[in-house]
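pinging the channel bc i need a second pair of eyes. not urgent but kinda urgent?? the chain im working w is below, pasted from the shared doc
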Amino acid sequence: MEQHIQAPMSEADAKKLKAGDYVYITGTIYTARDAAHKRMYETLEKGEPLPMEMKHNIIYYMGPSPAREGRPIGSAGPTTASRMDKYAPALLDLGLIGMIGKGKRTEAVREAIIRNGAVYFAAIGGAGALLSKSIQSSEVVAYDDLGTEAIRKLEVENFPVIVVIDSEGNNLYETAVKDYCDL
């Protein structure tokens, strides 16, 4: 099924998405990769506030290449989500409602997705130049010293993703294999 959602995303929108849905996101999302996640986790351990609100937000696991002239961002493809799995449950428990990456997630992340009514989306790896066309603006909001791994605020329009793990824990990577084997 094809869905169009606004970001930040409401709990109602998260709950209506099902594994396998094609989704187009419009609004504000944030980027964060390994180094930013590690720093956010350390910040939480110290009891300090994070540089951005988690509630209802979506984090895209991406570090862009330099922007070409006249563009807000360079190639913007997803990175492997499992590298953030150590940190994701804590952020989900703070209200993070969506994550965008590529690849499988651990059972701990799946359980946190269910517990918090969140969603894991996949963006198509290798299509970073195409994905960047949906990004209208990019602004570093935290950890500028991390370069491409800094946290960025992106304004996106019809950013294409696929629901991999829905709020009920249904996992497209598992059901698609089963469906294929049943053929």
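so The longest helix spans residues 34-45. and The first strand starts at residue 2 and ends at 7. — does that match what u expected or am i reading it wrong
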